[in-house]
Design goal:
The protein is mainly α. The protein has helices spanning 2-78, 82-89, 124-135, 157-166, and strands at 99-100, 103-104. Strand 1 and strand 2 form a beta hairpin. Residues 155-167 have a biased composition (Polar residues).
Length: 167
């Protein structure tokens, strides 16, 4: 019986070694396939990334040109009407994106990003304060009244009154 067990054990070890070799070959093939798929994924990722970067560069250049044109117009009009210029800086509405079922409504105006990503900043309080300042400006912001004709703008009103009394 010992000879038979020895033969059976040797046969099992031989078959087991063959199975292990086949299994090892299959694993190497699978690893090779995974590596090839990973290389292909990386190549696709970087090509998409380069396309996205180029598109973003173009968009940023266009936005910069538009911004510079608007900035020139803004500064040209800012001296004439301060409050109109200030009102242009603040958007009138903040977009609201609603989810109703599977339909997603997108905003029609540019989202001003807040401190949290993806959440727009609420500018209603800022608009409210600026409107209040527009209607009731503090004394240092009130426009200066034009001086009487012939008066020197560098001379105070009390000095002007004494000069006119002497005449």
């Amino acid at each position: 019986m010992e000879k038979e067990e020895g033969f059976a054990l040797r046969e099992w070890r031989r078959l087991n070694a063959l199975r292990l070799e086949e299994k090892e070959k299959e694993e190497k093939e699978m690893v090779q396939q995974i590596l090839e798929a990973a290389e292909q994924y990386k190549a696709e990722f970087y090509s998409k990334r380069n396309v996205t970067i180029e598109n973003n560069k173009k968009l940023n250049r266009e936005k910069e040109k538009f911004f510079l044109e608007n900035q020139e117009k803004f500064y040209a009009e800012a001296d004439k009407n301060n409050w109109k210029a200030i009102a242009e800086l603040i958007p009138r509405e903040v977009p609201v994106i609603e989810n109703r079922g599977n339909k997603k409504k997108t905003a029609t105006i540019t989202v001003i990003q807040g401190p949290k990503p993806g959440k727009p900043t609420d500018l209603s309080r800022m608009r409210q304060v600026l409107t209040k300042l527009k209607h009731n400006p503090p004394t240092h912001m009130k426009p200066k009244l034009p001086s009487p004709s012939g008066a020197d703008p560098n001379v105070s009103v009390s000095e002007q009154v004494t000069v006119t009394e002497k005449l």
